[in-house]
Each structure stands twice: as structure tokens, then as C-alpha cells.
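Hey,

The postdoc asked me to send both predictions to you directly instead of through the lab channel. I've kept everything plain text so nothing gets mangled by the mail client. Protein one:
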Amino acid sequence: MNSTEYFIYLLACHLNSVDPNGEKRMDWQQIYNLAEKNKLTAIIAYEIKRLPADCRPGGTIGAWFNESYENTVHSFRPNLQSLAGFINALTEAGIPHVLYKGVVLRNYYPFPELRVGIDTDVVLRPADYINAIEALKKRGFIEKSIESNSATLQFEKDVFELHTELESINIQSKIYFATPFDDISDSSGYTYKLKPVYHLLYLVSHIAHHLQTGHASIKMIMDIDALIRRYPDININDFLILSDNIKIGKTAETLLAFSKKIFNTPVVLNFTFEDEDTLSLFNDFIYAFSTGKVFGSSDENEENNGKRNTLDFVKNIFAKISRPKKQENELSYYQIQLLEELGLKEKEE
């Protein structure tokens, strides 16, 4: 395996709770760089601890991994205390709030304390926005920035982002996400969280945005996997219908198929990456999520190198590959539809 393959392999072991196999010749500097870029250093460090002793990185790089692990674990309890203060301040002020993304999703990981987030996101009703900011400031939260529909506050080292609406990728998703306090969420007191199928829909919409603009992270795919594992009863057919309704059906299907391919996500789909002819599309996803570049933007040399690496990746990690027959032009047609859906290619008349 090369470094990118092994990095993803270790993440898959973490999500599947299986012991990783060691590789004695590995570029741990590159793996560390990938882990830092994707905010996954603590998870990789945990998996390193489970490797045979002679397969672990030593020296400075080994110390970096250990330091990241210790710092991440030690910061978890203070973060929980900050979160409790945040929720209590809003609750005492009688302000409903929706928690979503990392602050919720980390609880679905094997070890929540290792799933690092940059900040805590919350959605408020526009009418409660200013009152919420004032309530938090009275509890010691420091205002860092404030705009018409979003604000950033900080408590000690923890950052909280307040929004007046869920992020949307198009007008259709804006309509779906316009009622986070109603039919698409559940509540406990004043604290709401999105229902699983709508949280999955939001994740896919959010990832689609980053495939368009850049900065997609492999952690986003891990979030898909963790959510589906936590809620195995999610009706995937209903989810795909919802995705079609907001005009990202192909994106949703391929992202779930990608998650299933690299992490063995327990989901049944009509589209898979098990056919050799899907290698090009699979490579586009690997490139986008490992580099943070816009989907399908790799130049010719990077793309060709990536395809060779991806072919090895498929051979090395996945022992069983089925090869169902497909129509000759199905892949190219599917790729075109996906790029058109993401607005990365003009629709053909």
C-alpha cells in the first residue's frame, strides 16, 4: 500500500472496530500530513497504538502522533463543559436551538473524544438570533464576529457558530431545510437535532457544496458511515428520493457508494464501485477528498498517477470484487450527470 491507501485503511479499521495489519515500510510523514490536513490525527494515532510494535512510527513523528492523541483526549472534557454551558445559557433564555454536524456526529464514532471538530454549529430562529448572542455573552462567551445571519463566539478554547438557517446548495434544499424546528428534527426541551434521514441529507448537501468549491475532507465520508451505522434502519430508498427532490440524487448515491467501498458502510445500493469501469470516477473521489481540490479538477499527470495508485488501492484493500456487466457508455453518462448536477459542467441540450 502507498501512504494514502494505508491512511484510509487505518480509518476503515477504526470505523469497523477491527485490528489493523502492520506495514513495515511506510511513509509516516506523509500519513501524518494527511491526518493533520483532515483533522484525523488522534484517530490515526489510536490505530497506530494497535499495530505491532515494529510497524509503528518512531522518533519525532511517533512523538507527534502521541502528542496529538493526548491533547485531543485531554481537551474533550473541557469541550463538554463548554457545550453544557452553551446549551444551558440558551435553555435558560428559552431559546430553541438545533445542534448538527460534528457536535452530534462525534457521538456515533467508536470513541467520540477522538473525532475532532473545528467548532460547534447551531441553528436558531432569526427572531432569537440577537437574544441568543446576548444570553451567551452574559455567560462569559466572547463575541468574535457577528454578521446578519451568522455569529462566532468563543468560550476559552472552544468556538461556537450561530446560524439563522441551515446551509443549502440550491433552492430546493433551501426549502427542505427551512423548517429545522418542525418536521425534520426531534427535540429534548429547547435542544433539537435533525432526524437521521435529514441529517444524512444535510451531510450530502454539505459535501456537494465542498465538491463544488473545494476543501472536502475524508472525515465527511466517515461522518456518513458513522451516521448510517448508528441508525441502520434509515430507509435508503426514501433518502435517495429526498436527494432527488433537492436535485443531488446522483451525488448522494455515489457518495454512499464511495463510503461503502472504502469503509464497508452497511448500505445496499444499485450503484456501486465494484465494476472495474468505475475506476475513473472512484479516482476522482479519492483525489477530491485526499487533496481538498474541486471535484474532477485534477490535471492529466495527477489523474494518471492517481489512477495507478487507485488500482493498487482496490487490489490491496478489497479482496472480493464483483464485476457485473454494464452498458458500454453507462459510466461516462453517469459522470456527466454527476458533474452537471454539481454545476461543474453545463447541461447538454
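Protein two:
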Amino acid sequence: MFGKYRVISSLGRGSSSQVFIVEHVKLKVHRAVKCIYKSQAAQPQFFLEADILKNLKHPGIPTIYDVEEDDKAYYIIEEYIQGQSLEAYLLRQDCISADKAIHMVLQICELVKYLHDQEPKPVLYQDLKPEHIILCGERIVLIDFGISSYITNCGNTFQAYGTEGFAPPEKYQGISCDVRADIYGVGKILEFIGAKVQKKEFQRLKPLIRKATAYSRADRYPSIEAFASELDGALWNGCQKIQQINHKHLLAEIAVAGVQERVGATHLAIALTCFFNQRKNTCIYQEHHNSDCMRLLIKEDGGCMRNGLAVYGNFQGMPYYGEGTAGWDRAEGLYIQDYGIQLHEVLADESKKLIVVAGSRPWECAQARNLLERICFRENLAVVCNYGDKMQAKYLEKMYHRRIYCFPLDIDPFQMTKEKRKFFKKLLLTERW
């Protein structure tokens, strides 16, 4: 193909196009090639799609590399997105939580907002449906901009296209579309995901779906930001969180883990233990990685060992005893489990409450972003940005639609300051732990 690519396989076929996986002969990397046949394609729309894609730079949108043409067809060569469609993902799920549904749709809202915010010409996507939403781990990518268009003062000129069940009523009425057409599509996606949510949890999604998919666009959300704001409110004030308040006496363990070494996971775990102890709660720090932190505390700072625990004032910490730790006969109370950087040990168990500590220094930010792309949908998760960097926290919140907490700059984890007390109260109250 054009002396550059070797066709690997076909990805799919539409009424006027076909998509192939190809390998770049020299670079040895895979690309996706969208082939649009001249006998059936509208030439202006092909070039419009290419023009839109070339100006978009977002991790949730495929990168366009080249445009080619021969006697039979036009070709758009773009980034090959490896993952599964939202449709395929949901087919494999028996049930998902309302929180997870909202997290997914918030990420779609962020993508749509990016399109609507393009300057000088906002972009209307127009074809939101489960097949066009690809899950790459926990990151969402929007593919196929075949009927996208720019929004002008006259609306858009391709209102006849769309997918039945996801396209708004105005598509069939000959009315030029605006941003509320995409809002309708996002609402339909939430409804589609909501089919896998338990009936009681689904109740808090219904008012949002009803407003986003109102027949009259005047009754819909005026902007994608307004829709996302209400989604965010439903996420943090949902019935699942209220249930956690009513059953907070069942809290037995909180795991703490860091994105990388020396990011402050152990420091935060000890400080959290001291916070609970100061409130007269029985709380024990539990070392789940071989750092020897507790033994060094005894050796260097005047603590002592008592009943297998390192004791330092009111603080009690259980040293790492290897695999036998799991079988230790624990007393009743709350355990703060320090996993160091052994995140893989706790990520799989979504029932375990987990605090992930990420650094905010420039050389630490990339690892924080890479991790959040994989775990931003996880339930029972609180993400802490260390050193009190509010700018970095706000950036991560906007990018991943996940509340990020700023742990204040702190010298002594055993001393409970006003700032730390306020921080832990806010985290535990907001997360309903």
C-alpha cells in the first residue's frame, strides 16, 4: 500500500468505507487505515474529517499521520487504538456500579468539551455510540470522525447523518445541529451504560439522562460543562456513599501505596494511624513491604517492642513478618496497611479502600498520570498529591475526573498538626469512609 504499509487485517466495513490494520514497513509499527471509496463517498466530507483530525491533539483522540488517494478510494492513515469498544465491554459485565458509569461518562464529557472548545471553529462530533468509544485499559478513546463537522453560525450541514437510538430528534427534522446534539448523544451513552447498573443505583442517574436526552433541545443542558457538573455532583453525593456513612463501623482496613519510591506513602500511613489514635480509635499501622521501617523506629528513635508490635508513644505498628503476616491473630480495630510501592497487590481488590500517594514534582508527574489512566475508574480509591501542590492536583482532577487531595508539607508524621487533622477529616468525610 503506497510502498509504505503492509496490510495485516480488516478491522471492519461500513456502507462506504473499510478500516484496515497495516504495518509501517520501515517503522515496524501498526496503523489504522480508513479507506473511503470514491464511488460512494462525498469528497468534501472526507477532506473535512481529515482537516478536523489534523488539528486535534488529545490522548483520547487518534492522531492522524497521513492522507493518501488512488483511483478507487481516499485513505486516512491514523493511530491504531488497541482496546475494546464500550459495547463489547458491557456485554461481558453482569453489573457495574453507578459510580463507575459516571466516571466513564465524565471522561466522555471531557472529550466532547475539548471538541466544543476548539478555536476558532468548534467541532461537533455527531455520532456518539458505544461502538465508537474504545476502552484502552481505563482510558477512553473516541474514534471515527466520519460525520463530524465544524459548528458555524448556521449550525452544521450534515444533520441527516447519525445512528438511530443515539442521534437527537433534530437530526430527522432537517434542523441544523448545535452542541446540544452531542449532549443528547452523551445522555444516550449514560442510558446505555445504565442498563448494567442495579435498579436502586440507577435511580440517581435517571434525572440526568432525562434532561440530557430531552426531546426539545431547549430543555437539555445548555453545555457539556453543565452536564458534567451534575454528573460530578451525583458521583460524590450518591446513595452508595450514604450507605457507606451508615455502615462506617464496618471499616477495618485502609491500604496506602505510593506511585514510586520516596513519594511519602509510609509517612502518610503513619500520620493517618496517629490521626485515628488521637480520636481514641484503636488503630494499628501494618507494614506490608520489607522496608524495616518499624524496626528502625525502635532502634533509632527510642520505641520498644510489645506483643509483636512496635510501640512509640500512642503509636503501634506491626513490622513486616513476611508471608506469615496474613495469619497473624489481629486484635479488633482499624488497620492502616502500608504497601510501599507494591500497588499491584491491592489494585485488583476493588473492595479494599486504597489511598494512592503520587508525587507532584516535575520528574514525578508522568508516573502519576500513567497510573491514573489505569485506575481512575477504580472504586474505593482516594488519590493524594503529596507536598500540597494544588496546581498539580487541579490538573489531575480535570484530566481524570477524580477528586485529588493535597497532603500538606509535613516534617514529623507522629505529630498531629491542625493542617493534617483538617486534611484527614476532609478525605474521610468526602470519601464516606
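Summary for protein two, as requested: The CA atoms of residues 247 and 433 lie 9 Å apart.

Thanks,
C.
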